[in-house]
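User: I'm writing a tutorial on reading structure tokens. Could you give me a worked example: one chain, its sequence, then its tokens, then a sentence or two explaining what the tokens reveal?
Assistant: Sure. Here is the example chain.
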Amino acid sequence: MVAFSHLARQMFSNVTLVAAGGTVPHTGLNSREQLQVPGALLAEVGATLRVSKGGGGGGGGGGGKGGGAASAVTARSVDFSKWYLDVVREAELADYGPVRGTMVIRPYGFALWESIQTYLNGRFRECGAQNCYFPQLIPLSFLQKEAEHVEGFAPELALVTKGGGKDLDEPLVVRPTSESIVNHMLSQWVRSYRDLPMRLNQWANVHRWEMRTRPFLRTLEFLWQEGHTAHATGKEAQAEAKKMLGVYADLAISLVGLPVIAGRKSRIESFAGAVETYTIEGMMGDGKALQSGTTHYLGDNFARAFNTQYLDENGELMHVHQSSWGLSTRMVGAVIMAHGDDAGLRLPPLMAPIQVVIVPIVKKGMEEDAAKVAAAVEGLRAAAQGAGLRVHVDDTEGRSPGWKFNFWEMKGVPVRVEVGPKDVAGNTCVVSRRDRPGKEGKQFGIPLEAAPFVAHVTGLLDEVQDSLLKQATEFRDVNIVDVTTFDELKAAVAAGKWARGPWAGSDDDERAVKEQTQATLRCLPFDQPASPGPCFYTGAETGTEIAIFAKAY
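And here are its predicted structure tokens:
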């Protein structure tokens, strides 16, 4: 069980662009008429609520008549891709920007990203990394110094060719990643073995001219953190890359509630310019894989290209060895696809912008009842907030309780509390948990007294956090198929599952598998059996490793 209350406290003018890849098509989010709703979500969300026009509604855990936000969402089983876009829109996470392929992250969506930032910043500091910032514009010649690097990124580059109304002497690349400019600076900063190891991290935006875009998962511009380290030996740099992958895995499991498989990428799937790339792979609700974070052992490839050297203890000039690592707003997409249901988001409590929403229920014209309910609600709000919980009271007028239930279910708020006159008279309230729909998730007779109320809700948030991880783990495990032949792999992939089996194929073999199945080699897991068995594709009995193939985002 997650130590919820403890961990929760710990966390929280002219420029011309030329795209190498051409235009970027995208599917719109189908914006709908909206109405202004008074009140702020929370200071940390910092946005006025905007909700889709509709009547009241009763979703899982609540009742009411009429449609609601959920009625505007396609069922996952009907069209998972459309469901995803509907949830992004209705939960007010993001919208498309005016430039094709770009994304506007709305306050509620950005709050999810901030929870990831908070967690990672703490872990990075523990690992000795310091935050910094490098320029967004990089001379094209920098990328050209490392041949494999520029070849890998060439189709995705955006170039600035004019500035101040004049042609530039050299095109500038809009940052796709920062290994080149980081090494340019490291070559000036690193002089002696005493300067090592050097661990840097930056939170930044990057641009990659993607042809098929989807909010959070793949956009022309996205947010991420990228870490860069320099070490005296390759062994140290490789260990650093694997250690940081462990940090990403911890984030996915403990914060996001996403079970992941950690492993090594194949040569084809590795980062351009890396000796080895490591990844965490998560299974989404449709069975597809999502590369959720990567780290890279760079060897001395970039150090040689940029002449990044240091004097060792013997006075000899040596090239540094490096790692780099990055995790992006893709993780927000993972939260949606791994946990969401037909009613919208289901957020893990540790990263939810609002953990508890309290809905007072009073009939019109019942002023005396309203005053008593308001006093009880304020007592619960103060107690929950005093315990470090992120709580919001929805006392918006003009909306039925059922409509509010649907709205906050769409937002994925983990716990909802209902307080009406009869509850006040009985000194109790009703509590619903978002991870269990309908009556199954509804609890009656929860005390209104501060201490027992807070104890119950805090324990419930723990349970929801654990439950979402458990559900996602069970879903993943039942959808991984062990295969021993290529026909078995094809059948597994056709059924929307991951195929796991012994592999010793060449790069051409890997391409052939992808061409015939649309599945890619997601990773060679670190956890390997002593005797994997003969390769399911070539039949080779030596040099095999267990590999996972799947369709992916």
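What the tokens reveal: The chain has 15 helices and 26 strands. The first strand starts at residue 15 and ends at 19.
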